[in-house]
Amino acid sequence: AQTVTQSQPEMSVQEAETVTLSCTYDTSESDYYLFWYKQPPSRQMILVIRQEAYKQQNATENRFSVNFQKAAKSFSLKISDSQLGDAAMYFCAYRRGNAGNMLTFGGGTRLMVKP
Amino acid sequence: NAGVMQNPRHLVRRRGQEARLRCSPMKGHSHVYWYRQLPEEGLKFMVYLQKENIIDESGMPKERFSAEFPKEGPSILRIQQVVRGDSAAYFCASSGEGGLGEQYFGPGTRLTVT
Q1: Which of B102, B109, B111 best tests the A interface by mutation, with the highest count of A CBs <10 A?
Q2: Which residues in chain A are closer than 8 Å to B102, comparing Cβ atoms?
Q3: Residues of chain B with pLDDT under 70
Q4: Inter-chain contact B107–A52, Cβ cutoff 8 Å?
Q5: How many CB atoms lie within 10 A of CB B89?
Q6: Does A42 reach chain B within 8 Å, measured CB to CB?
Q7: Which of B31, B44, B91 sits opposite A45 (nearest CB)?
Q8: Residue A10 vs residues A7, A61, A68, A88, B6: alpha-carbon distances, Å
Q9: Is residue A99 over pLDDT 90?
């Protein structure tokens, strides 16, 4: 069974600074996708960024980027120029193969942004 | 394009009652997934459905829980004879055919069992 581990229950960052959230996963599959979701206090799950395992290039979405280390099974999220609105729970998720497969989530990291 | 709709947003039930949670997927989406989030935890997969079919229910408790996605109307997650341990946030997600199959989430239903 696949597992996703987020070892940092809480992180804090100063506004405008950079923070990195860690995620490791375990799988024997070769075809899979990785995601970071943001859950603000409203509890809405918002997709932040995704990474296809077959792609070597790290995904980037504006201030969000990932460091995907396939051999190490590591998938960290870097948030640059942190903003107050970035404060939320962040969940790393794994999905085997294409559509129709479930997401396996990590336990989450609570990110606090200090003004 | 309307997103995934869930209702009610909050539901309070006494122990022993039934809870019905509804989910309308995004327009054009035919895949529906239900997840449960206990306090201070990540989301856990429960069931995956397509129209009129349950595809994967490996995360569903064996008793009291059922799900359906009829040909017409929303998907329903039904919990019979609720217990306090069922108190959680229940999220529905939907995805379309092809592409990367990204799952888009609804706002969730917070179930409180008293």
Answers
A1: B102
A2: 35, 47, 50
A3: 1, 98-99
A4: no
A5: 19
A6: yes
A7: B91
A8: 9, 23, 21, 10, 29
A9: no
Instruction: Work out the burial of residue A81: count CB atoms within 10 Å of its CB; fewer than 13 is exposed, 13-18 middle, 19 or more buried.
Output: exposed
Q: Judge contact between B69 and B8, C-beta under 8 A.
A: no
CB count, 10 Å around CB of A78? 16
Q: Quick count: other Cβ atoms within 10 Å of Cβ B77?
A: 26
Nearest to B11 by CA among B113, B86, B111: B111
Q: How confident is the model over A100-115, as a mean pLDDT?
A: 93
For residue B34, with 0-12 CB atoms within 10 Å meaning exposed, 13-18 middle and 19 or more buried, which class applies?
Answer: buried
Which amino acid appears at position B35 of this protein?
Y
Per the CB < 8 A criterion, the answer to whether A79 and A18 are in contact is yes
A45–B59: do the CB atoms touch at under 8 Å? no
CA distance B18 to chain A (A): 24
Cβ contacts (< 8 Å) between B56 and chain A: which residues?
102
d(CA B56, CA A102): 9
The 10 Å Cβ neighbour count of residue A36 is 26
* Neighbour-count burial of B85, counting CB atoms closer than 10 A to its CB (0-12 exposed, 13-18 middle, 19+ buried): exposed
Instruction: Summarize pLDDT for A46-69 with one digit per residue, the tens.
Output: 999 999 999 989 999 999 999 999
Say if A108 is an interface residue toward chain B (CB within 8 Å): yes
